[in-house]
Amino acid sequence: MTASSARSALLPVLACCVAMACFQIGAALAKQLFVSIGPMGTATLRLAIGAAVLIVVTRPWRNWPARVPGLALLGLGASVAGAILFYYLAIDRLPLGIAMPVQFLGPLVLATVMSRGVMDLVWVALAALGIWCLLGTGGTSGHIDPVGILFALGAAVSWAVYILAGKAAGDALGSAAAPASLGIAAIILLPIGTVHSGTALLDPAILPFAALVAIVSATIPFWLELYAMPRLPTRTFSVLMSLEPAFAVLFGLVMLGERLSLVQTLGVALVVGSSIGSVLTIRENGTAAGLQSLD
Question: Are the beta carbons of 281 and 208 closer than 8 angstroms?
Fold first, then answer.
């Protein structure tokens, strides 16, 4: 392999890793906004600013099809809104390194249901063991907030719906599906964020930081993954995305001081391993894309 070809193979992998790092950095930064506008207000601004940037840059109306699957597009937007809102509500009560593995159950279970292979039951059992390790031992505080877990499960369900709705909407809209779904998600959350945070959403002292959160956690990962996906096999891309919980643990520790116990760290490793195993053993008619990230 020449130096040029090695570099060409490495760059998409690095792009995926930077995208995952940016998503977790954005989540850690978002937690700083919770004090001022709460997780609901933060989710609203994150989606509104992210959608505005993406719509301006991609100009989806240029490739807008004559027939639009309205129900699928609405479902896609609602699932994006649910995934972001529930995830922010979860990390308001849980460490990043616990909320992200629980959220991963959505695409993992969906991939298992769609594949229906014997090995898939093994991966689900492995993930269940990992979640037990995460939740059964407590963190540094010795307590796992059950409401936070419910919110993380809500994010998991939303992520699974996103995958199902994204297939139909993506086939019809192509690249326009992402900005359109983010726009719908922002519209859905706007009343919720306004009722919860009021005029604080327009505070000039908050908006620049909210814009930073949106760009770091949404815009940059979107473009990096857009660069990486056509240059990597679907299976390779999905395996890389399976490392997301590990990035959550790392940046939760580095940026927020969130320490997991040894057993909880083992639980994260089991969830990551089950996700990678699901991708590597999935049948051709399965959905490796089910393990891609939701930015």
Answer: no
All residues at 6 or more sequence positions from 172 whose CB lies less than 8 Å from its CB, including other chains? 65, 67, 68, 69, 72
Residue 170 tokens read as: 């993506």
Which of 172, 103, 152, 165 is CA-nearest to residue 289?
Answer: 165
Q: What is the pTM of this model?
A: 0.86
- pLDDT per residue as tens digits for the range 50-78: 889 888 888 877 777 667 667 778 888 89
pLDDT in tens, 175-221: 677 788 888 999 999 999 999 988 888 899 899 999 999 999 988 88
pLDDT tens for residues 101-158?
999 888 878 877 776 677 777 888 888 898 888 887 544 445 788 999 999 999 999 9
- Supply the DSSP string of 101-163, one letter for each residue: HHHTHHHHHHHHHHH--HHHHHHHHHHHHHHHHHHSS--TTS---HHHHHHHHHHHHHHHHHH
**Left, alpha or beta for 142 (phi > 0: left; psi -120 to 50: alpha)?**
left
How far apart CA 100 and CA 114 sit, in angstroms, is 22
Residues in the chain: 295
DSSP structure class, residue 188 = H
**For residue 104, how many C-alpha atoms fall within 13 Å in the half-sphere facing its CB?**
36
By the 8 A CB rule, do 274 and 133 touch? Answer: no
Instruction: With beta carbons less than 8 A apart as the criterion, state whether 239 and 94 touch.
Output: no
Q: Which helix (H) or strand (E) holds 114?
A: helix 105-115
Q: Domain coordinates of the chain in residue numbers? A: 19-291
**DSSP for residue 61:** G
* Cα–Cα distance, 268 to 262 (Å, whole number): 10
